[in-house]
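Model the whole thing, not chain by chain.
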Amino acid sequence: MQIRFIDPATNFSDGIKVIRAYHDHLLEQGQRLLELISAIEAQGVDADRASHLAGLYAYYQRANVLHHQDEERALFPAIIGQDLLIDGMIERLTLDHEEIEESWRVLEIDLKAILECHDVPDQLGVKAARFEKLQREHLIRENEDFLPLLEKRLTPAQRIEMGRVMASIRNH
Ligand SMILES: [Fe+2]
Ligand SMILES: [Fe+2]
């Protein structure tokens, strides 16, 4: 099944807006993922749930990679090396990215198995909950603690430049 990825960001004229668009969308998709997994655990996999899962799977495969690249290649470089507090946050957020990616790799194996054989693996709900919780807590920390500091410091020109780098990551 080929599913087209639709980028949650449509406007790359301001890098911070791209980041916030992803955060809103990732938080929403996390809820959809948990609801779907609990339906699959309770009632098994039918054609509708399989197609919903295929969509979410394709979304995460692309969105998480793009979002971490946006932050690590455009957002963090714009602000690093100016303030020890912010540098410490960047270090922690980068480690979170590794942890989120690792928990996705664990969950991804189960999701692939469901899509290929319609089997429901053991511990599926636990793995999905771990991934979603790591992701959600990270996104909330970025929204509430990190982005407000950046919004105070970054100039309009820097925000435009970040958006340009993010667009180039997608080969716009
Ligand atoms: Fe992040
Ligand atoms: Fe983020």
